[in-house]
């Protein structure tokens, strides 16, 4: 316990402020051409993915369920936000928050409804039901011409950049951390560890599970809304189970039940993929072929050497609330 | 200014349409070899070697966006060829547009791709054009009274053409007796085909890719369907015949070029390509090859590596003599370009007629 | 206080609990004994809502509990431990207890989302209370260890502590002395006696260790094949030939 | 030569040392009990012998030959059966299937029907519940099944980890009687870990006392039963 | 009308048979080590390519040799994958293994893409594949009858193997308690390897039939793998007969949705129905309720 009483500079609040400041600076430098926009892009994508992965961690990590439909809720958020941005004439300053809020609420509501149904089952049956909802959502969008069908929606106004993503990521983390470090987070862990014992200390298991599911869906919706207004183009295929498995890979790579792990998992995976791209590309264009061959090998190797993912069940100290830090929480 | 021109290529090297990624890569490498053999691109009288940076976009929009960002900002390419699928081009286009880097997609046929964009071009015709051409052909030359359609509902290309075909065919006095869909990666179409069989159409329109079509045709024949088949540019690949065999005989499809047409540009490309890679040309390869040369010509015409100038030169391309025919841009991102109808005859793609 | 009337539950062809009735008066420590497979644990499962009874009623202070879910029953004031210990293994000892305090948090969802002042003060409060609790059970030293890493005896104690943390009026203990040697059992007897007094509890206890039953219970009920075969004062009941034949075995073990 | 001899056995879980070099010796045909408080390392010792745990030091000899390089299933084939703590029955298999798996390593296939008869004679409850899933048996029933299953292996040494845990008094006596019977009629050597020290010392020939990873006492059962330290720590004040 | 209905049922049967061939392997592995082997669909693909390569490299190789040989080779690959990528994680949390399996799957897809090429291929038909006319316009091909029969036969054989043999009992015991099963003298590694071998061999057979009746490509395993996973779960995962029933049910729902509702909404409606089914039977059709013994 090197730091005394949690009164160090490395605290959530300071890191959060620093993150936003750095993001603003980097975005500014990028805009004036002093910072490589490719890196800027990678950072933005990382931010969006962190929201996705961390929110899924609530369900798959803390709650210990195996949900396979996260991309579906992302789709709901993305489409609702995109529609608001596209169809309602709003000043840019209002448009972004309003559309994001729309995405969050819509995804949250859908998540709540799906959760109501889903939590009648557990384990792999739950996996299938969530996967099924993901497919149903994608299939529905494909068939709704108003949503562009398989062609998707183009020309969505660009509302997102690194700064907005950083702000959203920080808020997400603040809320997730607060929840995890509260009676709700503890109840989720209880259910993961032993649902029957949880019930017998008076936890309304289904209600508490659905709370996690709804929150996770809502944040997936936030990520979707950011994504839609960053990429300016969305198509249903971007939200199918391949996307869900990408999210899962980053989640488990980082480690279940660890918000720090979700950051690490996303960063490690994204950086790995881009490093491979650059290294292989530097050698010869033919080697672009090998990227998808090498990356899964590295993934398997990491999992073989770190069974619990990079940070499984551990947290960086600064993510913990001061109170916990003072008690000497995890490294 | 240092020597060498860098051009980015965003291609689906891996993922569900990796076969097209392969063709893309082949065509680019062939063009690179040809250009550099001649000393490079002639820019203001000085020859500069060209390097193509080929990146894998996995046929995923997110990856395409990353690839575009990398090529533009990291590799500092002067222009981008790609991507193939419309969904990837759509993800890349806003980036190219914002950066002011010209983009030519070989084969993104979704009308949205170039919409309201100054820097985004394509080397192919668009879905509505093709749907209309095929519908006209079915009504006209094939004299079909009734038609059915089976298409991949999850794919923008297939769905786009299918819907235009339906509307145009009906407008031309025909009757659509079946309009069935499947999902990407389905391999069993018997349920849809059994349903279509009940309506016994004169022709069955299959605006799908060459890896699905042979299965659809085989299964239709095995169910005892006797109608003719007609398709779109997604058919253009020798695999169609390799897999479909004699069931494909007598079918028609619309395409960007014809292998047996008497055009020197097509002929030399096809000969060189076949020789170098020991495989047949397909639409992806031909269109990519044309995209590269449209760009190279434009760079030469601009006489400098200035994106804006290159962009203007592309937009003003007139009667470019490509492997897929004459291409003209009238200032917009979409070329004025004809289609051809191909007939499958003794296991060969044979020119049937031209549509403009 | 707790009144069970004609409780019946069968699995397939087997009637695990058959027409069981039982009265637990306020302040009682009552024992349930009986051969393996007699239906004792099943009776606990019925009382705590893990199984639904086929027939019969469970009344707590006159209110019918049958058909309610486990969590509701817990909130009505019944807590239990399990024959096979069920702790939250990957949580710390402390968190095991704090979680059981969830009823007493007294703040709302949004307080937790934004860590508002009310949340913080309540959380501090509950931490303190739970620490006191741990101290009471001699587990304070171990508070930051994962529950699954505790030795067996301490796991048992933690489970009892967790049950008590839900502030029950009735505590059900399923073989708390299993796996303990006679000396350890003596410690356990002391513990149960103390908590019974301190927490104002009525206790229902399943046990195969006769010393526990004899020293703690003011009444026992003997089950066999789901039915009650004897009930009453522990010393009398354990002298009953029926009970000896079905459950205790002859005085001399003939080894 | 002892049938089972343990020399300087050390086992740790990560940083936690569970056994710090213990020595045990068991002669053919003996019942030896291993006593110790919760967490003393008794289970650890048994799991190390049957090779379920990797060992950090020392040697385990079966009939004079080291078995530290033998895999778990090999140890069983040599004739050492281990009835684990918590019984370890297969909950989703029926009683019958559980017993059947017990014969996996039994080399005398012809003896199996007789063995089964014997198990059913000793535990008639198991025969009644032949087709019930083991997971739904009561605790005591599961213990019977675990013992019966070990008998089916036709082993020479049985390692029993708290076989009386959770059993009714009647049944505890029964189990100890059966253990004695198996030992007497078949000559099976038995290493018995028990919390019920009174009973264990009654049927065992000799005993060891384990405290926090070290053997602190050994001797004949009689001596141990009268040792004040044992009385104080394990037998309670009766 | 009736003829079309019968035709559609036949269509469903052949699609179901294909799902079943993959789902059986899924369920085998799951029933033993509780691993959702996300690479199983890719093993199926690999099996198809092994068959394809055998036929291409040794023209004229009779089916009766080719199929067993391909099954054997694929089984060995399956065993190798378990050895290299899964064994070390056997005692880790389940999800680490799931992700590793996903990684293995992606690796296999890309390996085949690079080595054999990304195109779709058909394995030259070696099974009889004449079209049989059943009257009223109802048709079926011989190879499809064969596939249906084989999948049913395999189900029976596997069922007997898993439920009636000692090895099968050991496999189920592995799922319950890995330590205890070793204490019976069972070589855990051998049992698990056997499971992977059998599962992979089945997948290979499935891949070859599939490659003859339809086509194979490096990515085919993803979708089919998911479908088979879904079928296995619906049937009650771990249950052999459940896997087959689930497969036919999934295929039936898909085909009938196309036939009588809307092909546009195939996935939507099919999954909607399956979700409803799972809500009615939360442990799948043949699945046993989790033992809730406390
Ligand atoms: N879920 C279930 N399904 C089938 N049978 C069950 C189930 N639960 C319990 N049983 C059966 O009911 C009977 C009573 O079991 P129970 O666990 O209540 O016994 P018990 O009295 O607690 O025994 P022990 O002292 O051994 O723990 C047993 O025969 C058991 O096999
Ligand atoms: N998997 C494990 N990881 C870490 N520590 C462990 C593990 N298993 C046991 N221990 C520790 O090793 C020590 C010895 O444990 P062991 O289970 O051998 O004791 P025991 O004598 O069998 O006790 P009991 O009578 O409670 O069964 C204990 O301190 C225990 O906490
Ligand atoms: C390569 C193909 C996927 C291109 C298709 N014409 C499209 O627009 O998407
Ligand atoms: Mg019990
Ligand atoms: Mg022990």
Automatic annotation (TrEMBL), chain A:
GO annotation, cellular component aspect: plasma membrane
Membrane topology: Multi-pass membrane protein
InterPro entries reported in the protein's UniProt record: ABC_transp_permease, LivM-like
Transmembrane segments: 12-32, 38-59, 66-86, 92-113, 125-142, 162-180, 211-230, 250-272, 293-311
Xref: Pfam families: BPD_transp_2
Compartments where found: Cell membrane
Main location: membrane
The protein's name: Branched-chain amino acid ABC transporter permease
Native source species: Geomonas silvestris
Lineage: Bacteria, Pseudomonadati, Thermodesulfobacteriota, Desulfuromonadia, Geobacterales
Automatic annotation (TrEMBL), chain C:
GO cellular component: a single term: plasma membrane
Keywords, sorted A to Z: ATP-binding, Nucleotide-binding, Transport
Molecular function terms, GO-annotated: ATP binding; ATP hydrolysis activity; L-isoleucine transmembrane transporter activity; L-phenylalanine transmembrane transporter activity; L-valine transmembrane transporter activity
Domain (ABC transporter) ranges: 2-250
CDD domains cross-referenced by the UniProt entry: ABC_Mj1267_LivG_branched
Family annotation (InterPro entries): AAA+_ATPase, ABC_AA/LPS_Transport, ABC_transporter-like_ATP-bd, BCA_ABC_TP_C, P-loop_NTPase
Gene Ontology biological-process entries: D-alanine transmembrane transport; L-alanine transport; L-isoleucine import across plasma membrane; L-valine import across plasma membrane
PANTHER family: AMINO ACID ABC TRANSPORTER ATP-BINDING PROTEIN (PTHR45772:SF7), CONSERVED COMPONENT OF ABC TRANSPORTER FOR NATURAL AMINO ACIDS-RELATED (PTHR45772)
Protein name: ABC transporter ATP-binding protein
Automatic annotation (TrEMBL), chain D:
InterPro entries registered for this protein in UniProt: AAA+_ATPase, ABC_branched_ATPase_LivF/BraG, ABC_transporter-like_ATP-bd, ABC_transporter-like_CS, BCAA_Transport_ATP-bd_LivF, P-loop_NTPase
Transmembrane segments: none
Occurrences of domain ABC transporter (ranges): 4-237
A biological process term (GO) from this entry: L-amino acid transport
Keywords: Amino-acid transport, ATP-binding, Nucleotide-binding, Transport
MF term (GO), any: ATP hydrolysis activity
UniProt similarity note: Belongs to the ABC transporter superfamily.
Protein name, per record: ABC transporter ATP-binding protein
Organism (species): Geomonas silvestris
Automatic annotation (TrEMBL), chain E:
GO molecular function: L-isoleucine transmembrane transporter activity; L-leucine transmembrane transporter activity; L-phenylalanine transmembrane transporter activity; L-valine transmembrane transporter activity
Family indicated by similarity: Belongs to the binding-protein-dependent transport system permease family. LivHM subfamily.
Organism in which the protein naturally occurs: Geomonas silvestris
GO terms (BP aspect): D-alanine transmembrane transport; L-alanine transport; L-isoleucine import across plasma membrane
Record key words, sorted: Amino-acid transport, Cell inner membrane, Cell membrane, Membrane, Transmembrane, Transmembrane helix, Transport
InterPro entries the UniProt entry points to: ABC_transp_permease (IPR001851), BCAA_transport_permease (IPR052157)
Pfam families according to UniProt: BPD_transp_2
Source species, domain of life: Bacteria
This protein's record includes keyword Cell inner membrane: yes
Membrane topology: Multi-pass membrane protein
Transmembrane segments: 12-31, 97-116, 145-167, 188-210, 230-261, 268-286
GO terms under cellular component: plasma membrane
Cell compartments where the protein resides: Cell membrane
Protein's UniProt name: Branched-chain amino acid ABC transporter permease
